[in-house]
Structures are given as structure tokens and as C-alpha cells.
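Q: What residues go here?
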């Protein structure tokens, strides 16, 4: 008796089996996405906003989530009560420089009365998840972990390079006790990091934004002194008059920078911004200020942001000669919150051309995921990536949030659930490509 199944019948059975399993696959995929969204919302509900971020609860949640994804976990602490979580997915060649994916745990405060939905509820309203940190940048931590969870369950995933995820405290207040301390530690050096991805920003268009540099923040304080006296006297060179001349000089510089942007010659982040943040003068009284006394001192503070393409020495010369000249009884103080050059004296920038092999791999991975990148930018503000660039490690700022309004630090910050889920798929491609890159990364 011939027990063989005719080939036509066998093919039919295979088709029927595939048809029967397709609904099951769709159901599993739906369940997976719901779980990913649930993890995101649970993280958002942990209040890690300053001034009292709940780092302990966040650390417990993140380490538990990472363990369930099959990742190694390590908790470091460079300042009491400020845990830094390090997650690891081992590659097969430990001699190759590793990949580091960074995200900060903390967020800025929120004003609940000015939100449509409570800022720590993570309410999903018509597909929009409202929460402080939804864009900046709790989405990244969950996307990293969930992308690695998917990859580790795929038998074809065989990374050459080790992938680390750093989840750090205090980025929103300067990062000194977080990534700043970590970057200068033996624990960091032991990772042999070759390339870093950190936070970027949302994009209102269908293109993902990518950042190759940050602007360095300076706090500038200008002080003026002059003869005090009766409010009716006409002094030449009073403190307030001297300060006003400085403010006018700064205003002219601001207009020059604005004209360059309006002419389409540069993006705002490629230029220097000098924004006044406070003015202080007058003789105090119990009811406010004395109205008939000219003060002997006046002071103004400015937030200055410098792109790495600007010579800081020339900027200091402008301040000394034009904005706060000694000849007008002016003094100034510059508080530099970060360097503008790396340890080798080079500008804090990551190459976005063929000279940087990491860039090529990154672009190909994003493209393979169906994404498009806009023209690389300098970030207007500052992120933890600067600590990496200072050490000469190439670092890009990237948050896959296309077709999304920019709402970081704003009221009603939200992220669409579809955008969040797509970001996981993007990172699956990016992590797979970067960790499999066998070329020379020097």
C-alpha cells in the first residue's frame, strides 16, 4: 500500500495550516503591542519629575522589565539616592567596541491645572498618551528594552558587538550626578563604548530628526556700577545707564543673528543665542523700591548657547570689549556648564558623512525600517550626549517620533501609541545593524 500523500494534497494542507495560523499570529502580535504600551504607561505613571524624582520606584520597574526581556542588569550609584541602571545584551566578540543606548529617567515638573489630562496618568485618549516624559524621553527606555526583547527571541539575531543600555538620573538638571559621573568612571571605561545613541526630538514632518551636536550653555552675568544719588540728577555713566548700553549692544547682536536665520543662511541652532533671563537694580524698601534714588549697582543675566562651530575665545572677547567693557565700570562672569571642545581639542561634533562608518550603518538601518531622515542638525539645547562627544566617542541624538508636535517641557505633552510602537520596530533594525557591524569603527 502506498502511504505517500500526493504532492498537490500536501501543498493544500500546508496552505490550510498557514491560513489557520494567520489569525493566531495576528492575535499574538496584537497582544505583544498591548503589552508594550502597558509597559510604557506604567513607566510614565512613576513620578520622576523634579524636584523630587522617585528614582527608586523607576529603578525597580526598569530592572524588572529588563530581566523579563533576558537582559543583564547592573545598578550603579555615583550620588546617594540616584541610581543609574545599566542593561547589557552580550555580543559574540567582546574585543569589538560596544554600542550604548542612553535615556534619562528624570523629567521636568508639570503644572497639573494646565493639562487636559493629569500629567502622570498616562491616559490614552484617541491614541494619544498624555504624560510628562512621554516625549522627553521615557519612550526611549521602553523602546530600547522592547526592541531587545523582540530581537533576543529571534533565532537569527546573533550580535557581534555587545549592546548596553544606560538609564541615567538628573539629565534635566545638568547630568553631573548621572551621565557626567558615569562617563568619568572606571565602570564606563570597562564598557569599551564605540558608538552612542541618545535622545533627539519629535518631528512634525514624516522625517525623523537626527542631531550630531549640542549647543553648549553659558550663564552670563553682567554687572555695572556707577555713582548713586538723587533720582532727579543727570548722571553720566550711572549704573543703570551703563547696563542699558550693554543690553542694547546685546540686542543688536541678537538682531544680526536673527537676520541670518530669516535670510535662510543658517538654522537657529547653528548660531549663538543670547537671551535675557533676569534684571536686577534699585534700592529696596519695605514697599518695593525707593523711587527717588539712582542705584549704584545694576545686574543682568543671560542664557547663552554656543554651537560647536563658534570660537569661544572670540565670544569672550566680544563680551569683554563690547558688552561689558571695563571702561564703563562693567564686570562680567561666565559660568560654563559644559565644554565646547573634546579632550583632544576638537569641536564637540559627530561626523555625518562617509568618514564615519557608524553613520552609514545607522542611515541604512533607519531606511530599512521604512523611515526617512531629515538633514542632520545641531540641537538647540543640551543632552547627555555631550559627555560622550567630550571623550571623542561618536554620538547621535535620535528619537523616532515622526508626524509628532514638539511638546517636550510643554503642557499636554503626549505621544501617539502608533508612533511609540513604530519606534520599537525602528530600533529593532537599528540595534540589529549596529550590533552586527563588523567593519573598522576607528
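A:
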Amino acid at each position: 500500500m502506498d502511504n505517500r500523500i500526493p504532492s498537490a494534497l500536501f501543498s493544500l494542507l500546508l496552505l490550510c495550516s498557514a491560513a489557520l495560523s494567520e489569525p493566531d499570529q495576528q492575535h499574538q502580535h496584537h497582544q505583544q503591542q498591548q503589552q508594550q504600551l502597558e509597559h510604557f504607561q506604567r513607566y510614565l505613571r512613576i513620578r520622576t519629575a523634579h524636584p523630587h524624582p522617585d528614582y527608586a520606584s523607576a529603578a525597580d520597574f526598569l530592572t524588572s522589565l529588563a530581566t523579563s526581556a533576558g537582559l543583564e542588569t547592573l545598578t550603579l550609584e555615583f550620588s546617594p539616592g540616584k541610581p543609574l541602571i545599566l542593561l547589557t545584551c552580550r555580543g559574540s566578540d567582546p574585543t569589538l567596541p560596544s554600542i550604548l543606548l542612553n535615556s534619562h529617567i528624570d523629567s521636568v515638573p508639570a503644572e497639573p491645572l494646565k493639562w487636559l489630562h493629569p500629567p502622570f496618568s498616562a491616559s490614552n485618549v484617541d491614541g494619544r498618551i498624555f504624560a510628562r516624559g512621554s516625549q522627553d524621553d521615557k519612550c526611549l527606555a521602553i523602546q530600547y528594552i522592547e526592541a531587545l526583547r523582540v530581537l533576543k527571541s529571534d533565532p537569527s539575531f546573533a550580535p557581534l558587538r555587545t549592546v548596553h543600555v544606560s538609564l541615567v538620573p538628573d539629565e534635566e538638571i545638568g547630568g553631573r550626578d548621572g551621565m557626567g559621573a558615569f562617563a568619568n568612571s572606571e565602570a564606563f571605561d570597562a564598557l569599551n563604548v564605540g558608538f552612542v545613541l541618545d535622545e533627539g526630538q519629535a518631528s512634525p514632518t514624516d522625517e525623523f530628526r537626527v542631531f550630531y551636536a549640542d549647543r553648549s550653555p553659558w550663564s552670563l552675568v553682567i554687572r555695572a556700577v556707577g555713582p548713586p544719588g538723587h533720582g532727579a540728577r543727570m548722571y553720566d555713566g550711572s549704573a543703570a545707564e551703563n547696563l542699558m548700553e550693554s543690553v542694547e549692544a546685546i540686542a543688536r547682536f541678537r538682531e544680526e543673528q536673527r537676520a541670518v536665520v530669516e535670510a535662510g543662511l543658517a538654522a537657529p541652532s547653528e548660531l549663538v543665542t543670547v537671551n535675557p533671563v533676569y534684571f536686577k537694580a534699585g534700592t529696596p524698601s519695605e514697599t518695593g523700591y525707593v523711587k527717588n534714588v539712582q542705584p549704584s549697582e545694576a545686574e543682568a543675566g543671560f542664557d547663552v548657547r554656543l554651537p560647536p562651530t563658534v570660537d569661544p575665545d572670540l565670544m569672550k572677547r566680544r563680551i569683554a570689549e563690547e558688552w561689558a567693557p571695563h571702561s564703563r565700570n562693567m564686570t562680567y562672569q561666565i559660568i560654563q556648564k559644559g565644554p565646547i571642545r573634546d579632550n583632544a581639542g576638537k569641536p564637540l561634533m559627530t561626523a555625518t558623512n562617509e568618514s564615519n562608518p557608524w553613520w552609514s550603518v545607522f542611515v541604512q538601518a533607519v531606511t530599512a525600517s521604512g523611515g526617512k531622515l531629515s538633514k542632520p542638525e545641531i540641537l538647540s539645547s543640551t543632552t547627555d550626549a555631550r559627555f560622550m562627544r567630550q571623550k571623542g566617542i561618536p554620538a547621535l541624538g535620535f528619537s523616532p517620533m515622526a508626524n509628532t508636535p514638539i511638546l517636550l517641557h510643554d503642557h499636554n505633552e503626549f505621544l501617539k501609541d502608533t508612533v511609540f510602537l513604530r519606534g520599537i520596530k525602528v530600533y529593532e533594525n537599528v540595534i540589529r545593524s549596529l550590533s552586527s557591524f563588523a567593519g573598522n569603527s576607528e
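A: Context that may help when evaluating the design: The first helix runs from residue 7 to 44. Residues 216-306+310-336 form a domain with the Alpha-Beta Plaits fold (CATH 3.30.70.360).
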